[in-house]
Design goal:
single chain; mainly alpha; 73% helix
Amino acid sequence: MLDLLSSWDTSLLLAINGLHNNFFDSFMYLYSGRFIWVPMYAALLWAMYRSFGWKKAMIIAVGVALVIFLADSSCAKLLRPIFERLRPSNLANPLSEFVHIVNGHRGGAYGFPSCHAANTFALAVLMSLILPRRRFVLALFGWALLTCYSRSYLGVHYPGDLLFGAAVGSVAAVICYWLIRFAAFSGKSTRPSISTDANRGIDLFLYTAAATVAFIIVLSIYAVA
């Protein structure tokens, strides 16, 4: 059974990784970066402030830092040394000769589970539980899913790495959500009343996320021009 699952995992990776061109090589490489999303993270904090005020927003920010720490550490420090599953891009993996590599990026030695998947899903799930507005939730999960796709596209993670990483991040998010709920909201619902301030905060987040994607597209077009 494990051999069958591994075979499916490898086949899906090669299918995703094989659908490449110069534009998407650049797009996925930039999209997968951490620092390019800093403006979106700042807009996310602003959305929390507009929805809940500074005091609760700061507690939420601490909760976000905690959930990222839990998700990232669980994958990188606890689970990877246990499973020691080589990345498909790792030169020690015989599969690596069939994997398309972008900009020489191969990542570290082990990839199971994926820290990118854990971290993005931790943030998406936590924020969706705190502020369950449809367009906000859709944007967060769209961002997290495309981040995961980019990791297989770049050849640095099997889809199974991403699925398990997303599960780790989701569990961490649920734990931190309840901590935030009791610390900032006295155990009550975190859903804010519909207000102009909350909607403006969400709008700024959505515009910032869209602007970041547009910026990545422009850079990618320039790179292949």
